[in-house]
Design brief:
single chain, two-stranded antiparallel sheet, Arc Repressor Mutant, subunit A
Length: 89
């Protein structure tokens, strides 16, 4: 019996993914709250909010970030995302 894999692949480069996750961690440490979607987009050089949301959704699906879409500024790097960052360095 085959195992089904529900996680989608990240279509952005590992460098861009690491840059984004580091930005979320650093921003949250410096300011005491997570960045907005627009601020994430500014950091990765994307102005389209739908493209930013798609990228963040891919990070959520991969398990790198946790997000509550009902709450503004709720994006947080998960334990899996932190492991990803430590292996990317």
């Amino acid at each position: 019996m085959k195992e089904s894999h529900n996680k989608k692949k990240i279509f952005y480069s590992p460098e861009q993914t690491a840059l984004t996750l580091n930005f979320i961690v650093d921003f949250t440490k410096e300011r005491g709250y997570p960045p907005s979607v627009r601020e994430v987009g500014e950091k990765i050089g994307v102005s389209s909010s739908s493209t930013i949301h798609k990228f963040i959704r891919q990070c959520v699906d991969a398990g790198y970030v946790d997000l509550d879409a009902r709450i503004p500024r709720s994006i947080r790097v998960s334990k899996i995302g932190k492991k990803y960052l430590s292996s990317a360095q």
